[in-house]
């Protein structure tokens, strides 16, 4: 106690009445969020009847919250988990069903949780769908914070990506490459970086291999970011590729996104740069727009 249940459906019309129990704290904001989630769910409820068909038999990846209603940490996690599901759907509009958020009530379905080797609550588990229908199961680190920002960062790292992670071999991979590279310099704790990550992923799809995209963790590889003169996050640098086998400068050309997460704006900016540099035009997959002349000013 207290226990809050939302009853939905009309028995007079012989419809099965649905019950939604609040998992979380009884504040005004969370009660309103609970009602909104019940009316427009972003977290799918899994039971022994549908778990295998949906998680193991479907074509999607799942991030599942195994919880118990009486568990204090579970109640604290629940609103964060629902907020993460809504945020993920809003920032991954190109393929919102690539990852599904779901939950299992381990008090009601203890046999299912025992079968899945859930022995503590809450347990967050990522069921990643691989090629050939195989499932790769990963547990969310127990020593990580269970907030929206941290969970989003972990999921982004776990999801399949067209953006290559650049490690200590930045010079050989990027600076000595004859191919153009667009690099996202980020920090794991940076909320703007987390919000920008889906945009950068979508940009990789639009460029369709004509420009290679990579990202560098400036907390882990701080010396690379210092040499590239990175002074805020995320910062995007463009490298055109080597000429006459001469290594490129570490700094690269900064692509100012002005905080936008609009892929078309960034793609258009890149197209204009290519045009004004007199280089072969890059084709933007799925986009069609006009280019304009740009004037570059250098103040010394």
TrEMBL record:
- The name this protein carries in UniProt is Thioredoxin domain-containing protein
Any Gene Ontology CC annotation? endoplasmic reticulum lumen
Transmembrane annotation, as ranges: none
GO-annotated biological processes: IRE1-mediated unfolded protein response
- Species the sequence originates in: Meloidogyne enterolobii (Root-knot nematode worm)
PANTHER family listed in its UniProt record: DNAJ HOMOLOG SUBFAMILY C MEMBER 10
| Domain Thioredoxin stretches | 25-160, 161-271
Superkingdom as given in the UniProt entry: Eukaryota
Which InterPro entries does the protein's record reference? ER_disulfide_reductase (IPR052460), Thioredoxin-like_sf (IPR036249), Thioredoxin_CS (IPR017937), Thioredoxin_domain (IPR013766)
Q: Name one GO molecular function term.
A: oxidoreductase activity, acting on a sulfur group of donors, disulfide as acceptor
């Amino acid at each position: 106690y207290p226990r809050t249940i939302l009853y939905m459906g009309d028995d007079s019309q012989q419809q099965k009445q649905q019950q939604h129990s609040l998992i979380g704290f009884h504040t005004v904001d969370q009660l309103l969020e609970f009602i909104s989630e019940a009316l427009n769910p972003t977290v799918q409820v899994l039971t022994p009847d549908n778990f295998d068909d949906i998680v193991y038999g479907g074509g999607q990846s799942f991030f599942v919250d195994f919880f118990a209603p009486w568990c204090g940490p579970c109640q604290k996690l629940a609103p964060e988990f629902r907020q993460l599901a809504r945020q993920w759907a809003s920032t991954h509009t190109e393929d919102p069903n690539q990852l599904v958020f779901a939950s299992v009530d381990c008090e009601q379905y203890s046999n299912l949780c025992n079968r899945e080797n859930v022995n503590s609550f809450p347990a967050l588990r990522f069921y990643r769908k691989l090629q050939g229908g195989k499932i790769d199961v990963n547990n969310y680190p127990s020593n990580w914070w269970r907030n929206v920002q941290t969970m989003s960062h972990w999921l982004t790292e776990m999801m399949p990506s067209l953006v290559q992670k650049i490690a200590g071999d930045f010079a050989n991979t990027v600076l000595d490459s004859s191919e153009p590279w667009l690099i996202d310099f980020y920090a794991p704790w940076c909320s703007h970086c987390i919000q920008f990550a889906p945009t950068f992923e979508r940009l990789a799809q639009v460029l369709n291999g004509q420009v290679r995209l990579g990202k560098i963790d400036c907390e882990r590889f701080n010396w690379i970011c210092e040499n590239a003169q990175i002074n805020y996050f995320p910062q995007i640098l463009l490298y055109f590729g080597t000429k006459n086998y001469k290594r490129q400068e570490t700094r690269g050309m900064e692509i100012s996104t002005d905080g936008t997460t609009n892929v078309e704006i960034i793609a258009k900016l890149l197209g204009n740069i290519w045009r004004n540099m007199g280089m072969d035009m890059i084709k933007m997959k799925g986009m069609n727009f006009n280019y304009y002349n740009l004037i570059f000013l250098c103040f010394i």
